[in-house]
């Protein structure tokens, strides 16, 4: 095991250090009970005080079964060592030590071994999230709770999208809060690395926390990124409600009381515009939490989609806007648009057409556009490029990239008209998408069915909507 760790460390630019057992004994006062920060099923966490006054957390793992427990130790070290993210607890060092001692046992002297497996983390002063959720006087008002939801989502996004790591034990007890109530995901003891291209892992052992484990894991021993998404959904609902009493299949209607409770609490301290904005955030967090808890893992959103929805909710423009006839519209109009845009991103093609017809009609009289929609347009250009590369095994660099830009320019020049939805129904858009794919692939004939282009078509639909919203200059956007 030592050689595996050393090999891993050789390829890291900024990595946790291998720490000496005597150093850890010194900073924890020989693992004194007075230094204990918390207990867990896997070990004890001690407070360590360095000579310079810096405080760290030292986790001493239980070692009952060397092979099994060493695997958990390796998981924590290897999966956490190269992650530097504000919403993931930072691993600063580790210690793997074995002491041998001759001792008298059952009437004879034997050579006994004691195994030490220790991890040194940054110290997070406010402890775990589970200690705060149910107490309204804990200081977790809606703004703080919303930031915690966003931070946990960002941390999980780093694991799934950046590292292909499944956490597999997400729960409030494994989310720590720093002095500013910024959340940090901790405890990678059960984490697994999923190979590129794989969608799930089969396991023989059931490990985790009841109430946060996905149904397919409990019933069929299947692990995937969707397993973490389910746990995330439970956490989001628990953060919003302060309780964990909502089973799989709970409908939105059952959260009306929760919504009204938050509305009453916020009315005391918010002006009208801020109140509507934050009430909309409450509603969207409930909705995304329930989607994450869908019994069917295929219907759960990816962490990328969850982050997009959460950020879209955060960036809702709180100012009223003025139409060309001089009338004022409240921020709630933008909240309605945001929901319809979610339908476009996640819904069916039929829903997309209906939503586009409605939204495009509403947009005609606007002079001011929310900043978050403009940002979304830029992000969707990148998403579209990545989707084309992945779906059609293309590298959009050099000439191919210019062909994509030219094709998109042509597409938007043709379809920047009022009869966009009608053109979609007539199939004109599908024909043009096929032509775009031919241009991109640099082939005379592209051998693909239109069904294979459906995801690309949906991305184009969404991107067109945002361009219509922003009234952007198409040429300047892509050149």
User: Strand order, biggest sheet?
Assistant: 1-5-6-4-3-2
Total domain units? 3
What is the residue-averaged pLDDT? 69
How much helix is in the residues?
40-55%
CATH architecture of the largest domain: Orthogonal Bundle
Given this structure, which CATH class of the largest domain is correct? Answer: Mainly Alpha
Total beta strand runs: 14
Amount of beta strand: 5-15%
Structural class: alpha+beta
Largest pleated sheet: 6 strands, mixed
State the helix count. Answer: 17
CATH topology of the largest domain: Transferase(Phosphotransferase), domain 1
Which descriptor suits the 3D outline?
globular
Sequence stretches where pLDDT stays below 50 over 5 or more residues = 1-14, 316-357, 363-381, 391-407, 409-425, 432-457, 466-479
Q: Can you identify the CATH superfamily of the largest domain? A: Transferase(Phosphotransferase) domain 1
Q: Taking Cα atoms only, what radius of gyration do you get, to the nearest Å?
A: 26 Å
Beginning-to-end CA distance, first to last residue: 53 Å
Question: What can you tell me about this protein's structure?
Answer:
- With 479 residues, the chain is an alpha+beta fold.
- The protein has 3 domains: 1-123, Phosphorylase Kinase, domain 1, CATH 3.30.200; 135-314, Transferase(Phosphotransferase) domain 1 (Transferase(Phosphotransferase), domain 1, Orthogonal Bundle); 315-478, no CATH class.
- The chain has 17 helices and 14 strands.
- It has a 6-stranded mixed sheet with strand order 1-5-6-4-3-2, with helices on both faces.
């Amino acid at each position: 095991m030592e050689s595996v760790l050393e090999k891993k460390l050789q390829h890291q630019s900024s990595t946790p250090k291998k720490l000496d057992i005597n150093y850890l004994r010194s900073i924890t006062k020989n693992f004194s009970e007075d230094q204990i920060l918390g207990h867990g099923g896997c070990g004890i966490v001690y407070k360590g005080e360095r000579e310079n006054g810096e405080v760290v957390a030292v986790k001493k793992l239980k070692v009952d079964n060397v092979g099994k427990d060493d695997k958990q130790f390796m998981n924590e070290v290897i999966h956490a060592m190269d992650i530097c993210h504000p919403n993931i607890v930072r691993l600063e060092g580790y210690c793997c030590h074995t002491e041998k001692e001759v001792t008298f046992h059952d009437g004879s002297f034997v050579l006994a071994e004691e195994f030490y497996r220790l991890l040194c983390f940054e110290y997070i002063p406010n402890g775990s999230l589970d200690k705060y959720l149910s107490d309204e006087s804990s200081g977790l008002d809606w703004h703080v709770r919303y930031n915690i939801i966003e931070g946990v989502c960002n941390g999980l996004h780093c694991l799934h999208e950046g590292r292909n790591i499944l956490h597999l034990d997400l729960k409030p007890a494994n989310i720590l809060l720093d002095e500013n109530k910024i959340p940090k995901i901790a405890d990678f003891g059960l984490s697994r690395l999923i190979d590129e291209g794989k969608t799930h892992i089969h396991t023989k052992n059931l490990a985790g926390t009841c109430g946060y484990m996905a149904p397919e894991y409990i019933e069929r021993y299947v692990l995937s990124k969707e397993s973490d998404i389910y746990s995330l959904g439970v956490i989001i609902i628990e953060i919003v409600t302060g309780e964990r009493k909502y089973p799989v299949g709970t409908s939105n209607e059952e959260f009306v009381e929760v919504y009204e409770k938050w509305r009453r609490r916020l009315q005391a301290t918010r002006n009208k515009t801020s109140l509507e904005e934050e009430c909309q955030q409450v509603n969207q967090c409930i909705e995304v939490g329930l989607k994450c808890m869908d019994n069917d893992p295929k219907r759960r959103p990816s962490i990328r989609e969850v982050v997009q929805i959460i950020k879209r909710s955060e960036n809702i423009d709180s100012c009223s806007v003025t139409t060309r006839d001089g009338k004022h519209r409240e921020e709630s109009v933008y909240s309605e648009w945001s929901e319809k845009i979610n339908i476009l991103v996640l819904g069916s093609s039929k829903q997309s057409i209906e939503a586009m017809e409605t939204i495009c009609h509403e947009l005609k009289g606007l002079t001011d556009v929310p900043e978050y929609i403009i940002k979304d347009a830029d992000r969707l250009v990148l998403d579209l490029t990545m989707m084309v590369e992945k779906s059609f095994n293309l590298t959009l660099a050099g000439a191919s990239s210019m062909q994509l830009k030219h094709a998109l320019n042509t597409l938007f020049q043709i379809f920047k008209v009022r009869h966009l939805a009608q053109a979609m129904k007539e199939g004109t858009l599908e024909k043009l998408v096929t032509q775009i794919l031919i241009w991109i692939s640099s082939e005379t004939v592209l051998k693909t069915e239109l069904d294979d282009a459906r995801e690309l078509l949906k991305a184009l639909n969404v991107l067109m909507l945002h361009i219509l919203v922003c009234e952007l200059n198409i040429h300047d956007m892509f050149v």
